[in-house]
Specification:
heterodimer; A: seven-stranded antiparallel sheet; 51% strand; elongated; B: 2% helix
Amino acid sequence: MRPQGLLWKRGASFLALQSVAAATAFAGPTSVTKNQDFNFGRVIGGAGLSGTVTITPSGSRTYSGSAVPLGSAFSAARYTITGTAGKIYTITLPPDFTINAGPDQMTVTALTSSIPLTGAIPAGGVLPFSVGGTLNVSSVQRDGLYGGNMTVTVK
Amino acid sequence: MRPTTKKVLAAAGCTALVWTAAAGTSHAATAQTNTTATVLLPITITKTADLNFGKFLSGAAGGTVVVSTGGVQSVTGDLTTTAALGAFAAAAAFTISGEPTSTYAVTFPAQTALTGPGADMTIGTFTTASTGTLNTFGAGAETLSVGATLSVNADQASGTYNGTLDVAVNYN
């Protein structure tokens, strides 16, 4: 016998229970790997010669002033971001940093990236990019091999 | 009799259990990058002696005069010379310095002319020597000597001929 007071329609359920299964689990962490160190190469400078040497993110080198770079052994820094496709990434570059040869130092400024500092990780989850910058050589710069660390952060 | 039916507004609303993937707070990832640059001392160069082919006798067919990096004169072809005439010859000399252990190249113009009373004579075939290791800078200054070959025309008119020669020393 049909229940009184209720509209009973075949095929209709009067209490719908829905559940939605989440399609995506927690997004994995984004990581960054360095593929190539940052090398300005050889520069004739000091003893009255000064200026700047710039490496572009695409890896070409130019200079201004009287400090002249030479040779072909130089390179922009190169990295790979790995993460979930579609997730937003943010790259943070330092405003400047120093490289040293004993007590002597030079400043690297105007760090630039080959890709926008924020965007979405593409399909495939892998995003390579490179970083360039400007080396500042003073007129009293002492000769020698200068080295230092640059930290690039990716969220 | 048809039983009256009332529509009961059954609450069709349900509570949907939904949970979204929480982005959470990502830890920042960092990459350390070794950054290097090598500063080299600028090259210095100062001339200390001019190139002098010395004295010689011209000939009907011409020839060449060679001054070695040691300043020794010799002639070819129709030219003649003596020890006394040759004693006036001198190699060019330069005091040079640069970044120790870096290599350098010495370059000369394609052609340099000496002008004087007669037809121009040309200089070529430059030779070099160093008191240090040629083409590699040492810790201090060194002397670079330059010799060359002078082409003398047939029946070259006698007299003094002069010219200017640019010698360049560059890192390579």
